[in-house]
Amino acid sequence: MRSLDGRELRSCAAVILAAMVLTTAPPARAVMDATTECLSSFDGVPAGDEDGGTITCTDCDAACDQDGVAQANGSCTFKLAVCLNQSTATCPAGTIKKSKVKPKKAGLTGAEPCGPMTSVTVKTKNHGKKKGMLVINALAKTGAPARVDKDKLILICNPLGSGASCATTTTTTTTTTTFPTNVSCEPIVPGQPIPNTYQMQSISGPKLCHTGSAANRFGPCTTDADCGNTAGACLQTPWVTAGAIPQPLAVGSSTVFTIAAAGAAPTCEHAACIGCGNPNATCTGITGGCGDPANNCIKTTCCDAPKLNIPAILIAAISTCVRVDQVSCGVGVVNTSNPQVGDNEVNKSGDTSDPGPDCQYGTADDPAPLACNVVGAGADTKGKVVRTLGNGSFDPAGI
Question: Residue 23 carries which DSSP code?
């Protein structure tokens, strides 16, 4: 056996150290930068705080304390939601593999596109003499390529000062729309007067990304890659989605509408009516007795002269045939302004829980909502639907 001298020992140590460095190299980490900021965000917060920040409120300040109580009660209520996968120009959407919101007591849950708007209560401390604080952390991670977004929102509730009165808000909004000076009302059909009866009929058209696409919803596509790589999302029009199930729609659906009088420039919005006839007529073509609960029919009466006609749809995924019957007349507007100055986006948001006699959510008279696994949940007829028309910007040209 030959002994090792000092130089040989140092050489062996160097080899061992190099091996340790190679075998303990840090693993690849998920990217977190401007390209990931869309994976999680907060909704219902002031502009600039969507990706985190600090929101300060004073107890019973009606501008921020949304508990509906007009006197100090030792707490502030913030209404928030956590949104996931909101793609932007610098942040593409991905497939969310993991998401969480802490602390659990805040009651917030992230969802695509947005979780439910939730009342988050922050209590003051020391019997209403010191400020209270709640830190909310939202996290979202995607699969390969791995990306992560972490957002922190700090909610602060300041006590109402001794002798101070609750701040109230009176909001008066005046909106002035500046129209171009050269707007003209174009005919709907060239050479024909605007007051007329029209028929829109579905035909085979271009491919569009369907409702459940991870990206580019309702946008033109060639392959599923254009729809965020959602399998089967790039569909030939016409199509319809039944719940989350995309379904090709037979060519031949039609809508007949009548415009009785033309609107004036610069808005050029012409009121349209989709006729119905008698909405209380017995539905035709339904066999087996529509009054039988086993048939799950919603109504037994339909328009006897419907102007909306859609062929029956076979949803193969659940082996169910669905037919749509018109049950009342329809109204809307057709905008033919050139250049386009219409603002007709319609947004409806609803809540199936009972807002109480005052019809306002978050106030003291609200009955406790039913849990989803309780019989009767979802069958509430007192829920409130908030409808807004327009978003303050002219619509793009086209249908």
Answer: H
- pTM for this predicted structure: 0.46
User: Mapped to the 3 state alphabet, what secondary structure does the chain carry?
Assistant: CCCCCHHHHHHHHHHHHHHHHHHCCCCCCCECCCCCCCCEEEECCCCCCCCEEEEEEECCCCCCCCCCCCCCCCEEEEEEEEEECCCCCCCCCCCEEEEEEECHHHCCCEECCECCCEEEEEECECCCCECEEEEEEEEEEECCCCEEEEEEEEEEEECCCCCCCCCCCCCCCCCCCCCCCCCEECCCCCCCCCCEEEEEECCCCCEEECCCCCCCCCCECCCHHHHCCCCCCEEECCEEEECCEEEECCCCCEEEEEECCCCCCCCCEEEEEECCCCCCEECCCCCCCCCCHHHCCCCCEECCCCCEECCCEEEHHHCEEECCCCCCCEEEEEECEECCCCCCCEEEEEECCCCCCCCCCCCCCCCCCCCCCCCCCCCCCCCEEEEEECCCCCCCCCC
Q: Tell me: the pLDDT tens digits for 348-370?
A: 777 777 777 777 777 778 877 77
The conformation of residue 7, written as its DSSP 8-state character, comes to H
Domain locations in the chain as residue ranges: 40-158, 184-203+238-286+295-342, 343-399
Grouping H, G, I as helix, E, B as strand and the rest as coil, residue 288 is coil
> What is the tens place of the pLDDT at every residue in 96-118?
999 999 999 999 998 888 888 89
